[in-house]
Amino acid sequence: MDSFELNKILGALLGTCILVLVTSFAAHAIFAPANPEKPGFEIAVKEVAHGGEAKEAAAPSEPIEKLLQTASVEKGAGAAKKCAACHTFEKGGPNRVGPNLYGIVNEHRGEGRGFNFSAAMKAKGGTWTFDELNKFLANPKGYIPGTAMGFAGVPKDSERADIITYLRTLADSPVPIPTAAK
User: Which end of the chain is more exposed for a tag (fewer CB within 10 A), N or C?
Assistant: First the structure.
């Protein structure tokens, strides 16, 4: 191969590179992408009222006592399967990402169970009454800001009542279902 042939090959490669570069500049000039004002994706979250409690959790549509009257343990067991990724339900079961939930109704919040609860859960104190469970399951991070529970919540009232009814049965002596005030 002589130098003339080598010059033709190198000239073709150089010409191709220049053509691609010019085409790229022209494409960017014609189809300039618009940069977003704020980088990243917007994630939809529930609005939080001034007191730190979510609006949905602050004003339930119906009292939990009324919802529990028609709740189903079977439906609650099915709905609680989404909780099984982080919690166990059997007596003496191990803790996972979250604590074991056997006997949780009317138990002290944020203590015992051999689980290291978040500071926010410990600071909230109190007991897990039917109403407290209802508010927490509606929007965990809205009801107890700073909780380590990453679950978004159960927005449907009847589904929460089913889950709470199921949790009520997970005890040596289940707490009686409260009657709705008339």
Answer: C
Q: pLDDT tens digit string along 44-76? A: 555 555 555 444 444 456 788 888 888 899 999
Question: In whole angstroms, what is the distance from residue 165 CA to residue 72 CA?
Answer: 7
Distance CA 119, CA 34 (A): 43
**Comparison of pLDDT for 2 and 22, the residue scoring more:** 22
pLDDT of residue 181: 60
Overall residue count recorded for the chain in this entry: 182
Is there a contact between 137 and 154 (Cβ–Cβ < 8 Å)?
yes
Terminal CA-to-CA distance of the chain, rounded, Å? Answer: 102
Give the C-alpha separation, 107 to 153, whole Å: 20
Q: Which residue has the higher pLDDT, 150 or 7?
A: 7
Measure the CA–CA gap between 148 and 97, rounded to whole angstroms. Answer: 9
List own/partner pairs for 119-125 with CB under 8 A and 24 or more apart.
119/146, 120/144, 120/145, 120/146, 120/147, 120/148, 121/147, 121/148
Q: pLDDT value at position 180?
A: 64
- Give strand pairing partners of 48: 54
